[in-house]
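Supplementary Note 3. Input sequence used for the single-chain structure prediction.
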Amino acid sequence: MKSLCIGVLGGSGFVGHHLLPHLHDQGHHLRVFTRWPERHRDLRVLPGLELRAVDVHDEAALTEALRGCQAAVNLVGILNETGHTHRTFRHVHVDLPAKLARASRRAGATRIIHLSAAGADPNHGASMYLRTKGEGEQQLHINGGDRLDITILRPSVIFGPGDLFLNRFAQLLKWAPGIFPLPCPWARMQPVFVGDVVLALAACLDRPDTIGQRYCLGGHCRFGS
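The predicted structure, written as discrete structure tokens, is reproduced below.
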């Protein structure tokens, strides 16, 4: 396996905390971009990991942060919007991938692994979350052109140590035993273990045949009608 310098967006989140040790153990050099490095000092336990103060939504700053990297991994995503400028689906799921593609081209980081979502579709997604996730995929390719090697992963709900989503369901089940709440009657979930997502992402970095591909990631069990 070739050792890469990898810029990681969203590395301080749930998936990032599982991914970074794995990539580090594989010999990759990691740069994690965050606006608040002091909040994530726990990541410094990985020898050689760079924790850089970068606003990833600032395209010029992101370009500079990516210089010297061969690859970028985008784990940034939100499940709900707030009134804050940086907390809208369009800003996070659509604008950021476009900026990442342009910044990567300028910085010379030619490989991108992008974490999207199962059901992402710009026109027919079942929610604004999924429609903007689909638009973000488009923006990566539009702004990357033929100069970026892009792989997109579309996981279902991700579970594992430190997750929020399924642990919240576990709390709800304590109050309503035997009932598994879903957002709508026809909703389906095929939760995928975070360790499997990590293995898939790491494999994409090492396999040229994944370039230009989209992969849906789901577990063995399906919940819903």
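The chain has one domain: 5-224. The two ends are 42 Å apart (CA to CA).
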